[in-house]
């Protein structure tokens, strides 16, 4: 059996969405190309009993097209395109640990380059605003299937005999937004897990359940693909705000109340860019003893 690898990690959270962060910027690094199976590492390090515990793994890397690069792995080892909460934490990590003195960072992700604007107080990153780019609605881009006109707005989808009206939104990854009068555990855990893997989604999807409390305030819980329910989802909060705005249920600026905190979302009416503002915090640091298979 291969020997255990000692890997330095930092654990961070943004509105309760917690990930394990590994710095692959240095030379040499314990994550040099070909030395670690990242999906396997993500699964093991994310385990809340036998690992560090988290919603997944974030690897911070050099970039040839931006200031830095972020790769994101869900807790089941699958690689995702983007995570809004994680991108804010990456910004805090880079600035607070001295990798950059920029207060605006270009971050390469698997869904393109994102602009991170840091809000600094007393030399420390207190919060971050992320330009998430434009939302998109065409099913072929999300991807999703089943809509008559290639756009899913309140499209009926059946899960375990119950019909849901789903609005599909792309925010770098696929989202299915459902508006409801109330949200409970059965709705999120049972139906969310079924809808995540519905035939509607060729690559699975995050499922958001949303209550509209007012034109400026949404309440949301999310079932994330590859992870399950999390305390927050930045791209999900953006997708929910977009769906609510398109349906005329809210304005273009809303606060989204999640189990782990509040995110503020603004949709630019002129160019369709979605801006997300929220916190980022350090939780713990240490060494993880990774046992390859």
From TrEMBL:
Keywords for this protein: Isomerase
Record EC number: 5.1.1.7
Enzyme class: isomerase
Superkingdom of origin organism: Bacteria
Designated name of the protein: Diaminopimelate epimerase
Species for this entry: Lepagella muris
């Amino acid at each position: 059996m291969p020997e255990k690898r000692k890997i330095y990690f930092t654990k961070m959270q943004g509105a309760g969405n917690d990930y394990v962060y590994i710095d692959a910027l240095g030379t040499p690094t314990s994550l040099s190309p070909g030395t670690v199976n990242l999906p396997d590492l993500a699964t093991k390090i994310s385990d809340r009993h036998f690992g560090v515990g988290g919603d997944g793994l974030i690897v911070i890397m050099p970039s040839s097209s931006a200031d830095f690069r972020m790769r994101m792995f869900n807790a089941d080892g699958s690689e995702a395109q983007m995570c809004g909460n994680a991108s804010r934490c990456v910004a805090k990590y880079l600035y607070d640990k001295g990798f950059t003195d920029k207060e605006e960072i270009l971050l390469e992700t698997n869904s393109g380059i994102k602009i991170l604007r840091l809000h600094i107080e007393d030399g420390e990153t207190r919060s971050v605003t992320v330009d998430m780019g434009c939302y998109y609605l065409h099913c072929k881009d999300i991807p999703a299937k089943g809509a008559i006109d290639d756009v899913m707005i309140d499209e009926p989808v059946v899960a375990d005999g119950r019909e849901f009206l789903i609005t599909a939104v792309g925010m770098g990854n696929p989202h299915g937004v459902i508006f409801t009068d109330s949200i409970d555990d059965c709705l999120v855990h049972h139906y969310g897990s079924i809808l995540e893997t519905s035939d509607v989604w060729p690559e699975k999807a995050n499922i958001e359940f949303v209550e509209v409390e007012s034109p400026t305030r949404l309440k949301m819980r999310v079932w994330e693909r590859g992870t399950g329910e999390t305390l927050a989802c930045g791209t999900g909060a953006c997708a929910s705000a977009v769906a609510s705005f398109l349906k005329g249920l809210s304005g273009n600026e809303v606060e989204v109340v999640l189990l782990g905190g509040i995110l503020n979302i603004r949709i630019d009416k002129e160019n369709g860019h979605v801006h997300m503002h929220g916190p980022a915090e350090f939780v713990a640091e240490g060494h993880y003893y990774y046992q390859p298979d």
